[in-house]
Write a structure and sequence with these properties.
With about 190 residues, the protein is an alpha/beta fold. It has eight helices and five strands, in the order ααβαβααβαβαβα. Strands 4-3-2-1-5 form a five-stranded parallel β-sheet, with helices on both faces.
Amino acid sequence: MYKNIRILLAVLSAALLWGCGKGSASPSSQRILEFPNIPNIPQNPHLSFGGYFKHHQPVKILFAIGQPGGQVTESLVNGALVLRYLAARGYRYKIHYVFYSKGVLVADEFNQRYSAGWGPLLNALHKQGVTFSVCHNAMALLHVKSNELYPYIRPIPAGILEIVKYEERGYAPIFNPNSVTGQNFLHVK
């Protein structure tokens, strides 16, 4: 699985680096955040967002995850790469993940199918201030108990209403609903 994640990271990073647009150079002494199984990708100093995020802080991002698999891959990897970019420049951020529908299975610390692959990255993101919530309705339907969640993942009454709340607070929602790219990379041998 980690080989597949590295392939996905290379593709996502290339898209991130080449799709940014030109502007001011990035700081020469960047602080690189470490995330499990996420390689340190050198930033091209000739690419930037033209100071946009410097003047629009904190950067608020909401990742909504409704399916395990490719959607989780892209959302967690993108979160780590974006966080690394923002932190290296000293930009403030607020990143939140909402697990709803079958995505709640990823929030279950004891679900061996998902916790082994994503647990370390969830923990690392949490240590950088990323917050998480999980839909109680979906937990009930999928028989996930509150005491089975990672300790920093907060149950909320309804995932969809949590998404609405964060959007109304100015967070940019990222869904990756039909994450074919992530699905393909997870199944490459």
